[in-house]
Amino acid sequence: MNVFAGTQQQTRVIASAQSVSCETTLQRRLDTRVSLAILIGINILMVISQSIFTEISVLGLTVTIMICSGIFRATIYWLVFYLIFAFLTQLLLMTNNTLLSSFAASFLMYRHVLPAFMFAFNMLSTTRLGELACALQSLKVPPNYAVAICVAFRFLPTLGREFSAVNDAMKTRGLAFNLKSVVCHPAKTAEHFLVPVIARLGTIADELGNAVVARGLGSDVKRTSYYQLKLRAFDIACLLFMASLLVISIFMKVGLL
User: Is the pTM of this model over 0.90?
Assistant: First the structure.
């Protein structure tokens, strides 16, 4: 009997420790509602402003959020990509070659939108589907739109795995997806790669949509949620920084700054 009581007490201690660990992890991540607002704000900034000030500010905010979320290795990778695009852009611009100016413009565009992709990657990596559903419900998003957003959110991480699976299947047929195959056999590569990928992704999207609807996300009745979203000081600080950056960029756009 004492052994059973001790085992039960140990189980409670372990469960309590796991709960504390989970809560600590959740505290490091951005609130899902704030993530959605910042993602929309970043996309607006990328459209209305082309200044280096806006770009560096968004990059600094994104890097700070990623570091606070504990994604250190991915942050380094993204920063390396950004520095490569920045270096290539400056290198091509220094040549003053008209032929290379189009490549410089392309690299400049990639560098400009890269912080938005960085933030989207961080959101996909740190946000659970249940948290997103809870956030959309708290924001009074219509059920049909909420289902579409959740399906897209769950669907995006599967793209890399599907591309890799199809590429492995192509290798067994002696036609891997690489630069050589695209140049030498463009039609055959497109047929053997794009057709199965599109067909497979269509099947996955249909299955995810059915799964989300089966969980009651499309219902008009308010759903309960396992997750509790709370605004913390870090969330409010990031939201205020994004709002200030939007105001400054709009003032710069209209010529008031």
Answer: no
CB 252 within 8 A of CB 49: yes
Q: What is the pLDDT of residue 26?
A: 42
Q: Can you give the pLDDT at residue 230?
A: 84
* Contact criterion met (CB below 8 Å) for 139 and 40: no
Q: Which of 236, 238, 254, 250 is nearest to 44 (CA)?
A: 250
Low-confidence ranges of the chain (pLDDT < 50): 1-27
Please tell me the total number of residues recorded for the chain in this structure: 257
- Residue 181 CA to residue 127 CA, distance in Å, equals 37
Say which residues have a Cβ less than 8 Å from residue 138's Cβ, sequence separation at least 6.
33, 229
Instruction: Say if residues 132 and 153 touch (Cβ distance below 8 Å).
Output: yes
Q: Could you tell me which residues come within 8 angstroms of residue 151 by beta carbon, excluding any fewer than 6 positions away?
A: 205, 208, 209, 212
Helices 98-126 and 32-48 pack at an angle, to 10 degrees, of 170
Nearest to 79 by CA among 104, 60, 65: 60
Tokens of 98: 């008209």
